[in-house]
Amino acid sequence: MDVRHKAFTEALESFSYLTEVDMVVLATQLDKRLIDGLENGKAQKFEYTLELCWKAIKLALKEQEGIDEASPKKVVKAWYLSGHLSEDDYLALIAAIDDRNKLSHIYDPTEFMTILARLPEYAKLLQRVKKSLGGK
Fold first, then answer.
1. CB-based contacts of 129: which residues, under 8 Å, 6+ apart?
2. What structural domains and CATH numbers belong to the chain?
3. Would the pTM count as exceeding 0.70?
């Protein structure tokens, strides 16, 4: 397994676990500043995992299809056009990339929480993408 694919798989395992943690329950037991830190960490883990995802796709795309694209959205589109993703997963992955980009520039807590609420679905999406890469 390629180093990028392995790193993506490991990051995805950790990210998926974090999306299953019930922050509401934790908020009854922990200081709100700690919860804020955990939520920010979850967002950063999403950004990191998605970065590894598209780079693993880029490598697979080059090896399997002989296609070399540079940007995340072009890589994902080429992977979709090569028949490795459903249209729904393609569109969801583009939305995830948009959300990842927004996280770097969000100053509105409501918008931040809206994106955080989508992370469990993104974890499931990235699991499907991993399968499209040949991951178990």
1. 53, 57, 85, 89, 93
2. 3-132 (1.20.120.330)
3. yes
Can you tell me the distance from the alpha carbon of 11 to that of 72, in angstroms, rounded to the nearest whole number? 18
Beta carbons of 15 and 123 less than 8 angstroms apart: yes
Query: Over the stretch 80-115, which tens digit does the pLDDT of each residue have?
Result: 999 999 999 999 999 999 999 999 888 889 999 999
| CA distances, 53 to each of 60, 67, 68, 108 (Å) | 11, 17, 16, 27
Alpha carbon of 46 to those of 62, 76, 83: distances in Å? 24, 17, 25
The whole-angstrom separation of Cα 99 and Cα 81 is 22
The two structure tokens encoding residue 3: 């180093």
